[in-house]
């Protein structure tokens, strides 16, 4: 019998499996997909291009412990992400920065707006767009309205199916105005992608004799939770269970279905060596998709390869049994519904919930690793 059962082989589950296995614990790691890595899973297509199957994943962090930990399982290719957005037919840098300002406004107006921004905010800081909208200065209000309508509003409504005002501030703060000229999308100390891809990183992480991997299997096929008792394969289980999936699903939708967002991923391989001006180009308006990513700009291939693979992302509502839940829906109503499930989970003292779906929170990759390391360190004390 296993000491610990972990549901989900994304970063949260895989980190805890590796760390606990290193202490001699026997782990059953269960994953409903046919491969490890969760939404970070990638593969090489027929052209030899390393493609991220569930959208672009660019690793960035200021957390040195997280960086050093993952470095045990991969070599890194330094990579600093660049994003552009199509505004009125023209591709301009994102986040919206002082450089973007000068590309979309006449020179005299851009100079005046830059002067006022620097008078109110420190250089190299980020200002959430909804905060800028509250400024009393007419020029800054005009800037805020421009960015809100041209970049923020329609993209947010496509991504979440809600207006920015209906979404939790932690999400809207991720789309700021950048008071600086650094054109990188992230400014973290460590920025890279795994040299051989995320799938290889996960395979290296899980190559431990104490880890038994069970793929193509859902939690509902092996676990039963009822009246405070957990059963594994029909038998009472006294060990620990770590769960990283949808909490409403685990608990039988006893408080109704939680709200999630899904994405339709449309890949296309084209017989050209170059498709667009940046690795990712956002389309805030006038298109059903939100962005296009070109993967050979993230993982370079030999110039002789005359092919490129792109991904268009079409956000859509999550429908159980029809598509995949990628993001919790961050509204006050959804958070209140989740709280009922979180309270019910406390009836099971050996059940631990962790991860984007289980915690019903937005985590970047380094956040997920950090939270898993913290949980492990709490147990090992």
Structural overview:
There is one protein chain. The chain is an alpha+beta fold and 381 residues long. 31% of the residues lie in helices and 25% in strands. The protein contains 13 helices and 22 strands. It has helices at 11-21, 64-70, 98-104, 107-120, 129-132, 138-160, 169-172, 198-205, 219-222, 247-250, 332-345, 356-359, 365-380, and strands at 4-7, 27-30, 42-44, 50-52, 59-61, 76-78, 83-87, 90-94, 125-128, 176-179, 190-194, 211-214, 223-226, 229-232, 235-236, 240-243, 260-270, 280-282, 291-294, 308-317, 327-328, 351-353. The chain has a seven-stranded mixed sheet. A five-stranded parallel sheet has the order 12-2-1-16-22, covered by helices on one side. The protein has a three-stranded antiparallel sheet with strand order 5-11-6. Strand 3 (42-44) and strand 4 (50-52) form a beta hairpin. The longest helix is centred in the middle third of the chain and has 23 residues, at 138-160. The protein is globular. The two termini are 24 Å apart. The relative contact order is 0.21. The model has no long low-confidence stretch (mean pLDDT 93).
């Amino acid at each position: 019998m296993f000491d610990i059962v972990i549901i989900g082989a994304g970063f949260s589950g895989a980190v805890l499996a590796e760390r606990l296995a290193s202490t001699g614990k026997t782990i059953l790691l269960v994953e409903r997909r046919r491969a490890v890595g969760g939404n970070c899973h990638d593969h090489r297509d027929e052209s030899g291009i390393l493609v991220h199957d569930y959208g672009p994943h660019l690793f960035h962090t200021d957390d040195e412990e997280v960086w050093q930990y993952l470095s045990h399982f991969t070599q890194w290719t330094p990579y600093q992400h660049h994003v552009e957005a199509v505004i009125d037919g023209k591709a301009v840098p994102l986040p919206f920065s002082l450089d973007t300002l000068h590309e979309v406004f006449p020179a005299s107006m851009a100079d005046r707006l830059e002067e006022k921004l620097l008078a109110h905010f420190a250089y190299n800081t980020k200002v959430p767009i909804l905060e800028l909208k509250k400024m009393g200065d007419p020029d800054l209000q005009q800037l805020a309205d421009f960015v809100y309508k041209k970049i923020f509003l329609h993209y947010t409504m496509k991504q979440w199916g809600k207006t920015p005002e209906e979404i939790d501030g932690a999400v809207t703060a991720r789309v700021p105005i950048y008071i600086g000229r650094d054109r990188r999308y992230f400014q973290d100390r460590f920025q890279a992608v795994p040299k051989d891809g995320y799938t290889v990183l996960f395979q290296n992480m899980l190559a431990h004799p104490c880890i038994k991997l069970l793929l193509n299997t859902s939690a509902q096929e092996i676990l039963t939770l009822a009246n405070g008792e957990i059963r594994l394969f029909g038998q009472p289980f006294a060990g620990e269970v770590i769960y990283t999936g949808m909490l409403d699903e685990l608990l039988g939708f006893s408080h109704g279905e939680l709200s999630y967002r899904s994405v339709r991923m449309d890949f296309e391989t084209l017989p050209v060596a170059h498709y667009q001006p940046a690795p990712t180009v956002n389309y805030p308006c006038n298109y059903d998709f939100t962005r296009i990513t070109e993967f050979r700009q993230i993982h370079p291939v030999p110039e002789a390869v005359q092919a490129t693979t792109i991904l268009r992302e079409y956000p859509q509502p999550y429908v159980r049994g029809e598509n995949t839940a990628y993001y919790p829906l961050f509204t006050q109503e959804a958070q209140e519904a989740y709280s009922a499930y979180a309270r019910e989970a406390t009836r099971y003292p050996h059940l631990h919930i962790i991860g984007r779906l289980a915690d019903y929170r937005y985590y970047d990759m380094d956040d997920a690793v950090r939270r898993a390391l913290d949980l492990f360190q709490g147990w090992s004390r």
